[in-house]
Write a structure and sequence with these properties.
- The protein has helices spanning about 10-15, 70-75, 125-130, 270-275, 285-290, 345, 370-375, 405-410, and strands at about 5, 30-35, 35, 40-45, 50-55, 65, 80-85, 95-105, 110-120, 135, 145-150, 155-160, 170-175, 175-180, 180-190, 195-205, 210-215, 225-235, 240-250, 255-265, 280-285, 290-295, 300-305, 320-325, 330-340, 355-360, 360, 380-390, 390-400.
- By secondary structure, it is mainly beta.
- Strands 4-5-10-6-9-8 form a six-stranded mixed beta barrel. It has a six-stranded antiparallel β-sheet with strand order 2-12-11-22-23-13, with no helix packed on it.
Length: about 400
């Protein structure tokens, strides 16, 4: 959920003349496998011969290397310094444009592209994902191609739009607009009192959250019901803590979802007048992964095919724990923060506690992903957590709560 905006210099000067069709060579389609970590799409690739991990972020335009030290080791020469800003940041960040960087996904699937190298790595992704993350691939990387995202098989298929037209018989086209290689769809939301409103959403694989609404963009925007503070998920900028609620219904084209977990976040990096022309919110992977998604960058179209997860209820963390992973192998886990008035706070857990075991299983055998899935179990589940605090080992019992449910809201 970076949505970096290039504020100095024209975007087309960064993009240059190459297109995503270079990845295909003489082929009509190629497959790129990916992994899903904490709801984000991670692609293993080689950049100038070095193995790296990049996220695929449809909510960003450009390809970005987070770690300047990698560029230094590779001897990359930058052409100029540019000023950027991200959707969840208040301050400007800076980067350097580097031309003709070689990306290889498989022996015969590669291309050159221009990238932005951040002057300083301001993203806290590694600790919240528990693995190395070196950068992101934005939408312009695949320009002029068709991209199928198969969440079940964890494969991205790149199509030549004229040589290999994908069979879209089982897909539904979603009315969409593209701006700077970023797709936006038209949708509507409905509150529990029956009030409805049309909204414009950014399709953002750089967000694990099903739905984000920018309440400050439009003062008439419907706020979700049963608002509370919570750990809402993971974005490109790290763990996201904010105001969370439930939207009774969201719909786009022929598809509708009920009782959608929704985050309210201010859209604070441009003026509200500009923001109102851009979007009212974001649709993330926890909603997109209920479909096979086809994005045609050559024709500015989006198609969706529902899968078996289409009707699955939305889950979220019910403990109030924000956990970070540290160490060379990211196998040490610390409590980064505790949401106020959450089950974790009521149990007595504190920021800075080191987690030693979860449900009597040593964390040396657990990934961060596994721990966080445990904290999304059904309400009333007791999670046994052993921690070390100032050298002293202690046990705590966290009883998970559905902090967004109507009954809990009424009890308060």
């Amino acid at each position: 959920m970076l949505c970096v905006v290039l504020l100095s210099g024209r975007a087309d000067s960064l993009i240059g003349q190459r297109t995503g069709l270079d990845l295909l060579g003489q082929k009509s389609r190629v497959d790129i496998p990916f992994e899903i970590h904490n709801g984000l799409i991670l692609i293993k690739l080689k950049m100038n011969g070095i193995n790296l991990n990049f996220l695929y972020d449809t909510g960003a335009e450009n390809t970005i290397l987070f770690k300047r030290e990698i560029a230094v080791v590779l001897g990359m020469k930058s052409s100029r310094r540019v000023r950027l800003i991200g959707s969840s940041l208040n301050n400007y960040i800076y980067g350097y444009i580097v031309h003709n960087v070689f990306f290889q996904f498989q022996p015969n699937v590669s291309r050159f592209d221009n990238i932005i190298v951040l002057e300083e790595n301001i993203f806290d992704l590694q600790q919240v994902l528990g693995l190395h993350v070196d950068g992101l691939i934005g939408g312009s990387f695949f320009r002029n191609t068709g991209i199928k995202i198969d969440y079940k098989k964890q494969v991205i298929t790149i199509y030549h739009p004229s040589k290999n037209k994908m069979n879209l018989d089982d897909y539904t086209e979603i009315p969409a607009q593209f701006q700077d290689h970023k797709p936006y769809i038209q949708a509507y939301i409905e509150k529990h009192d029956g009030t409805t409103q049309n909204i414009r959403l950014l399709v953002d694989t750089g967000s694990s959250i099903p739905l984000i609404l920018h309440a400050n963009v439009d003062s008439s925007l419907i706020a979700p019901d049963h608002l509370t503070k919570g750990h809402i998920g993971v974005g490109i900028s790290g763990a996201l803590i904010g105001t969370v609620g439930i939207v009774k219904k969201i719909g786009f084209s022929d598809f509708t979802f009920g009782e959608v977990i929704t985050s309210l976040q201010d859209f604070d990096y441009i003026t509200q007048e500009e923001a109102s022309k851009t979007r009212n919110g974001i649709i993330g992977n926890d909603m997109l992964n209920r479909f096979t998604v086809y994005i045609d960058y050559s024709r500015n179209q989006i198609f969706l095919k529902p899968g078996k997860r289409y009707n699955k209820s939305f889950s979220y963390d019910k403990s109030g724990l924000i956990i970070s992973a540290v160490g060379l192998d990211f196998n040490q886990y610390f409590i980064q923060a505790v949401v106020p008035d959450s089950p974790a706070e009521k149990a007595g857990l504190l920021s800075g506690d080191e987690i030693l075991s979860v449900n009597s299983v040593s964390t040396s055998f657990l990934s961060l992903n596994q721990i966080q899935r445990t904290l999304k179990r059904k309400e009333g589940t007791t999670i046994r957590i052993k921690i070390s605090r100032k050298g002293k080992k202690q046990k705590f019992y966290v009883v998970l709560e559905d902090m967004l449910s109507k009954t809990n809201a009424e009890k308060e």
